[in-house]
Amino acid sequence: MIRDYHSEPAEYMSPKNDIVDVDDMTAPDPRARIQARLPEFAAIRRDIHRHPETAYEEFRTAEIVAHALRACEIEVVTGLAGTGVVGILRAGTSKRAIGLRADMDALDVVELNDFAHRSIHSGKMHGCGHDGHTAMLLAAAADLAEHRTFDGCVYFVFQPAEEGKGGAKRMIDEGTIRPVPDAGCVRYA
Ligand SMILES: [Zn+2]
Prior knowledge:
disordered N terminus, two-stranded antiparallel ribbon
């Protein structure tokens, strides 16, 4: 189903949103807020690190992502390009949009670390940091959802298969995301 949020009227925008001018220097620093929640997002990162999934097999990771987004009352679309997930968050009345992207797949690498959250899947490891990318984007999503300090729409794109398996191209080819010329970013369609 093709959904064009930008051609639809603004009643998507929740009237209870408290819009904050992002240029208002008296607004709370989002970095400080996220720092305060660091243990929560570090735990997600370590959980994903412990359970690495390679290209198009990111089923467990996608579940974690979808669950975390829904917990923030972010609209979630799953099963995109196989295991991809997109979160959709709106605030205010602007029709502007931006896409923030993370990748979720691990590598075919044997992990030699001995810390507690080392990979439990022999021959697979988050050796490229996609566990961190995923956790960081979830942190950004959580903060933006809680404070909604923007005017427009944010698409949180969690793509599968970044490591040479063309996950982003597949999301584009399937029409999940496409360039927005005037915004320099991506949108979910
Ligand atoms: Zn990578």
